[in-house]
Amino acid sequence: MLVQDLEKQIFEINSGADFEKTALALFHHQAEHNAVYKQYLKLLRVDHKDVNSCASIPFMPIRFFKDFEVISGQFEPEVAFTSSGTTGAASSKHFVKSTKLYIQSFLKCFRTFYGNEKNYTFVCLLPSYMERQGSSLIYMMNYLVQQGQQEGCGFYPRVDDAFVSLMTKLQQNDKHQVFLLGVTFALLELAEKYPVDLSQCIIMETGGMKGRRKEITRPELYEVLQKNLHVTHIHSEYGMTELLSQAYAKEKGLFFCPPHMRVLIRDMNDPFTLLEKNKTGVINVIDLANIHSCAFIATDDAGKLLENGGFEVLGRIDNSDIRGCNLLMS
């Protein structure tokens, strides 16, 4: 299957059979044309021609995006997204061949769960992301803000009286629902220092404390935000630099994927063994929008699949460099 055909098909997937067929076609393509992934499969002694199901596909350790140029084929990227990382640590780099493909992907994801983006007033409270270059989240939200173009749409660097006043005013507009996307530490600051009734808004948390304050569990976060901001549910976004797609949770941290994305759970001690539902392990992601990089990624996030088809994210694993990650270093 040609790459051009894959680009057309991934956003038209509407069944498990469609996903399986497209994922296998993309796997065989990347096994041949992604030099890093090809070498990884070689060191695993995996012949891609013998792989005939998604469950048999080896997932590439996510840290390879820090150490190598992970691309399928040869191209000049339109943009390179980078992760924030920690001080002194290497950042992941995701070289994106087509921003059009990224836009198609995040719009498909958003519309799957929230409908038309033009129905919202997007307010972005993302100070840690605004302070650096190369954020895929900023790129996505900037596009959504421009689509809305309602008064008050935009990015805000801090929580203060003016911001609270703005939020109070915006949610009185009955034509467009306010969609507040905030990094965790900023939303906590809003809830603790400026408790305000935002019951008419969608509040979505993304990211973590970014070193600004002590990490807390998602249930603890939800309890504070729900109580102080008077909302029934806190929404969450699961995305990362290395992915062009996002999963969303509308309540209780229960995430669901769009049709072209799938989450599997691997054993913590054996990265090549997949676990059944309700078993805690580490998250593997198939993101078919990653046509020009690698669509099969072994993350460093702990999680579990649920009976209803969703999944939970339970935090980071203690030792990110799990067995299998250092094969290309030798």
Keywords:
five-stranded mixed sheet; 2 domains; globular; seven-stranded mixed sheet; 31% helix; 10 helices; alpha/beta; 330 residues
What is this structure, in a nutshell?
The protein is α/β, with parallel strands linked by helices.
Count of spatially separate domains: 2
What is the molecular shape?
globular
Strand content: 15-25%
Number of helices: 10
Largest sheet: 7 strands, mixed
Give the averaged pLDDT, no decimals: 90
**Which sequence of strands runs across the widest sheet?**
5-4-6-7-8-9-10
Number of strands: 14
Helix content: 25-40%
What distance separates the N and C termini? 33 Å
- Spatial extent as radius of gyration: 20 Å
Low-confidence stretches: 321-330
The helix/strand order is HHHEHEEHEHHEHEHEHEEEEEEE
Structural class by sheet pairing and helices: alpha/beta
How would you describe the overall organization of this protein?
With about 325 residues, this protein is of the alpha/beta class. It folds into two domains: about 130 residues, no CATH class; about 130 residues. Helix content is about 30%, strand content about 20%. The chain contains ten helices and 14 strands. The strands form three sheets. It has a seven-stranded mixed sheet. Strands 1, 11, 12, 13 and 14 form a five-stranded mixed sheet that branches. Helix 10 links the parallel strand 7 and strand 8. Helix 2 crosses helix 3. It is globular. The protein starts with a helix and ends in a 14-residue tail after the last strand.
